């Protein structure tokens, strides 16, 4: 079991319920999804703190046990569903994937989903503006020049 | 030339700059992207009105000329770049696509991009909360039950 922050997890069709996640090939999660053909998504809300996000976004599951300090439960597929700071959770089975170079897009059919509470989903804009978060070099949106500008400002 | 609102246009990698759009197979734009292997994206901002959005979201280019009433310019690929209510525009060449059932995901390499102005991108949340917009039945996120609830409320 492992977890990571993804800034690119989207619904792709509603009938059937189908979602996609874009994962960096260097991430442990990439290895796990490739092998298991399954993944889970927890939709974080604006209550998430940098302390909570940090390990998931900037550390590897090869070095630390990311789930040891957060609330989660096991889903029907065996994937961990992080329930802390989460509005909803879902599990999906991979039906297709596309090699994007540095990343892979995994497309999956939703096999289980649950709304945990009402609230505002954590957006990348909120993360940057309110939590002053940086972009991981493994993110699909990483831009070295932008990070340098931010460090200087 | 044609245009449509897409609620699912995302960056998928940064090196090379690569984007994806998810388009309903019934849309004229789907036919045009399939044939040309090219598409353009205009990132709308919060100044966009329902009068501006409406034709792009709820009418077909088979019935009306959607570009006749908006400001746009032709890009290097020949695709129309809507500059009105737009923060930035980009053009992409399709390198891969995936059949998602009702929709297709087109993945493209960015061949041209321009920032027009600074501002806040129009999100789906802003659209629903501030513009009181509905979801097109062609959207990847369409949910018939949700629309009925909204109509009743």
Provide keyphrases for this structure.
two-stranded antiparallel ribbon, homodimer, 5-stranded antiparallel sheet, 153 residues, globular
Multimeric status of the protein: homodimer
Helix content of chain A: 10-25%
Order of helices and strands of chain A: EEHEHEEEEHH
Q: Number of helical runs of chain A?
A: 4
Query: What separation lies between the terminal Cα atoms of chain A?
Result: 38 Å
Could you describe the largest sheet of chain A, including whether it forms a barrel? 5 strands, antiparallel
Uncertain runs of chain A are: none
**Mean residue pLDDT of chain A:** 92
Strand-residue proportion of chain A: 35-45%
Biggest protein-protein interface?
Answer: A-B, 28 and 28 residues
Shape of chain A: globular
Strand segment count of chain A: 7
The computed structural class of chain A is alpha+beta
Give the C-alpha Rg of chain A: 15 Å
- The main sheet of chain A orders its strands as 1-2-7-6-3
Question: What's the structural blueprint in terms of helices and strands?
Answer:
The structure is a homodimer.
Chain A: E1 9-14, E2 17-24, H1 28-36, E3 38-44, H2 50-58, E4 72-74, E5 80-82, E6 86-99, E7 103-115, H3 124-129, H4 144-152
Antiparallel strand pairs in A: 1-2, 2-7, 3-6, 4-5, 6-7
